[in-house]
């Protein structure tokens, strides 16, 4: 069990709790909001879990929205806001959002804009959502094919992660979360990286204690970075390791390469592009079942570079990336188009 507190620049305070079996404690965690009205938004894929939570928490209304990326849009925000209004949700309401990162992004955007912002509790159910999407106060919806165009920086009031919820998650989605966890360890913390090397098989085998410990560690690393730099002016760029090339691979493949796979390939590719290498990172990603090489079909340097320079974190003709010079030691380097030729 671990508790973290994160203060946003806007004065909003987030309380983040991680524990196996936290589900049994949820009533006490939302007790302060009971009189103002609880509203539960969930992914229909998680109907059984949502049903258990609804029995415990007795929300005024239960809303459903698919946890797919395709539902992260303004039409869904409008539909759900209409349901909240019809159910009598006022400015004092608490919206609980149960799902993966896509639904949390949608739900926290809804909570942040409904009557200019109501209280919000995030209940992440994927490994990626627990260690990444639920922590840090970023929310967004997509605009057509372009991801995360409309969004907010706004800390949720509560983040409650029960690592036992990961029991039903697919192997594929466990791997996607491991990619972000390995990324954070590789660029931020050698000790954590070393620990992951020892437990990677337990994590893939979903050992409940190993998963709980990994979520606690992932949340701690992300909280530490966000505490220093909530608005991405400085240190938060470290979390972008693997993502410049990774996003380009997602774009050029038309999102056929899943995000975690793209980040894993991006982590190794960005090291190669700046002339560094790291056998331990390659080995750990491979042990996690993640890919490490750019697929032959995506080796279009022109298209990859175009996608990399269209990323919002770029300046003309060059791309700034954060890469680990050594494990746990992030540095900023500048990439140019010709660096793509160094990809192995
Ligand atoms: N706000 C942020 O800071 C931030 C950070 C990283 C990612 N994100 C966003 O997160 C999204 C990706 O999140 P994700 O990786 O969690 O994927 P996801 O939200 O797409 O969920 C993956 C799938 O898993 C299913 N699922 C969720 N929990 C489950 C469980 N416990 N058991 C079985 N199935 C379950 C969902 O129905 C969905 O089909 C993207 O939209 C990305 O933009 C946001
Ligand atoms: Zn990512």
Weakly predicted, low-confidence segments: none
Strand order of the largest sheet: 1-2-9-6-5-3-4
Bound molecules: nicotinamide-adenine-dinucleotide, zinc ion
Tell me, rounded to a whole number, the average pLDDT: 95
Structure annotation, total helices: 12
Structure described in brief:
By secondary structure, the protein is an alpha/beta fold. The protein has twelve helices and twelve strands.
Tell me what you see in this structure.
The chain is of the alpha/beta class and 344 residues long. It folds into two domains: 2-168, Rossmann fold (3-Layer(aba) Sandwich); 180-342, Dehydroquinate synthase-like, alpha domain (Up-down Bundle), CATH 1.20.1090.10. The protein is 42% helix and 20% strand. The chain contains twelve helices and twelve strands. The chain has helices spanning 26-29, 47-57, 74-86, 101-113, 127-133, 171-188, 190-204, 208-228, 243-252, 259-273, 279-287, 301-310; strands at 2-7, 13-18, 38-42, 61-64, 94-99, 119-124, 138-143, 146-153, 158-161, 314-315, 318-326, 329-335. The strands form three sheets. Strands 1-2-9-6-5-3-4 form a seven-stranded mixed β-sheet, sandwiched between helices. A three-stranded antiparallel β-sheet has the order 10-11-12. β10 (314-315) and β11 (318-326) form a beta hairpin. The chain is globular and about 60 Å long. The protein starts with a strand and ends in a 9-residue tail after the last strand. The model has no long low-confidence stretch (mean pLDDT 95). Residues 180, 243, 259, 263 line the site of zinc ion (ZN).
């Amino acid at each position: 069990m671990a508790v973290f507190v994160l203060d946003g620049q806007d004065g909003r305070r987030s309380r983040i709790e991680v524990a196996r079996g936290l589900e049994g404690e949820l009533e006490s965690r939302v007790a302060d909001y009971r009189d103002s009205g609880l509203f539960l938004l969930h992914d229909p894929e998680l109907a059984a879990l949502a049903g258990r939570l609804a029995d415990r928490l007795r929300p005024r209304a239960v809303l459903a929205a698919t946890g797919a990326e395709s539902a992260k849009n303004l039409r869904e925000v409008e539909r759900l806001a209409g349901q909240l209004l019809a159910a009598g949700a006022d400015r004092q309401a608490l919206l609980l959002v149960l799902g993966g990162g896509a639904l949390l992004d949608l739900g926290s955007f809804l909570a942040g804009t409904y009557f200019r912002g109501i209280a919000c509790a995030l209940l992440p159910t994927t490994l990626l959502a627990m260690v990444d999407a639920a922590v840090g106060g970023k929310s967004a919806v997509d605009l057509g094919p372009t991801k995360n165009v409309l969004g907010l920086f706004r800390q949720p009031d509560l983040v409650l992660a029960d690592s036992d919820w990961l029991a039903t998650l697919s192997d594929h989605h466990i791997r996607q979360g491991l990619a972000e966890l390995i990324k954070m360890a590789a660029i931020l913390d050698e000790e954590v990286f070393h620990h992951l090397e020892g437990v990677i098989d337990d994590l893939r085998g979903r050992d409940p204690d190993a998963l709980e410990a990994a979520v606690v560690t992932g949340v701690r690393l992300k909280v530490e970075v966000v505490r220093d730099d909530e608005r991405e002016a400085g240190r938060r760029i470290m979390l972008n390791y693997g993502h410049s090339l990774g996003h380009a691979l997602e774009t050029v493949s038309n999102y056929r390469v899943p995000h975690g796979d793209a980040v894993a390939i991006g982590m190794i590719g960005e090291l190669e592009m700046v002339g560094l290498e790291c056998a331990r990172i390659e080995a750990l990603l491979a042990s996690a079942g993640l890919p490490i090489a750019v697929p032959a079909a995506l080796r279009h340097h022109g298209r990859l570079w175009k996608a990399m320079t269209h990323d919002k974190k770029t300046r003309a003709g060059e791309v700034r990336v954060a890469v680990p010079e050594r494990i746990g030691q992030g540095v900023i380097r500048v990439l140019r188009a010709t660096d793509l030729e160094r990809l192995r």
